[in-house]
Amino acid sequence: MKRYHRISWLLILVIVAGALVGSVLADDPPATEAERAYEIKATILCPVCDGQNVLESNAPVAAAIRAQVDDLVAEGRTDEEIRTWMARQYGSDVNANPPRSGVGALVWMLPVLVGVVASGLLAFAFAKWRSGREIEPSEEDIRIVQALREKN
Amino acid sequence: MTRWRLRSVRLVSGAAGIILLSFVLLLATRDGGTGPQSKSPLIGELVPHVEGVSFDGKSFDIDDVTSRWVLINFFASWCVPCVREHPELMEWNRRRRVDGVVISVPFGDTEKDARAFFVEHGGDWPVLIDRESAWAVAFGVLRPPESFLVAPGGIVVAKWQGQITADEIDRVVTDLQERNAVS
Hints:
Chain A is mostly helical. Chain A is built from six helices and no strands.
């Protein structure tokens, strides 16, 4: 039984690791300037719309940002430079990807923290259940149970 | 429920309450960024370079008017507040003919409609086309009308989101002139 448990855990580990490696490999960097500009526009939110990125929005400000992203990419500016410039002009909320520092970093950190704490609690609960199962009844317990059975 | 469990539940509930309250406070105290005279990262900074050929065919370069007050107005022909504020811009332009200049930049509009707007409503100041939207982004324009006041020397001193009046612009100009006279 223990052997099957170990194989199951190993299988889960292999699947999770495979999924992580697969997702990293599938995330190819953009091949052309147009692709790079597209990816930047897809992750910049229209500052006057509700949750729409500048690619989806018809607002004049979205059109202005799209035109500027194309220009800045053509000028050879890095993604980080373009995002920083847009955040300076329109506020950090235009970045669809939350920042990796300050309060916004909680978005990245909390799921990891919750995952670690949940895993720890599960491990603790499993250990407790297992240790509970291993308790052997004392002679006194056996005697009481036998006495009750005889009585009934 | 045992005393230990009761204590744990109270502790977890208290922690969750504190976290929720912190988020509410954080969101409640954030700056909305709206209002008649709005905040902008440009205020106190050198004005972005604006140059081009106006509708009247004359060349314009903001560097040539650094000795005057410059009001840069982003507008659109389809925008009702822009139509309403246009007479105010004409009035301010009339009052400040000696030491001020208005520049209009169509935003989210076609050149044809912007030209028709000036034919219909008047205005003899430079109207420049922001072909690559570089000025709109450099000024952080969200929606028309938006106006930026540049002091002599080229520093942006005020930004307005929405309709403005000649008196409101002049109030800022007078305030700054008085402040400079004191210092």
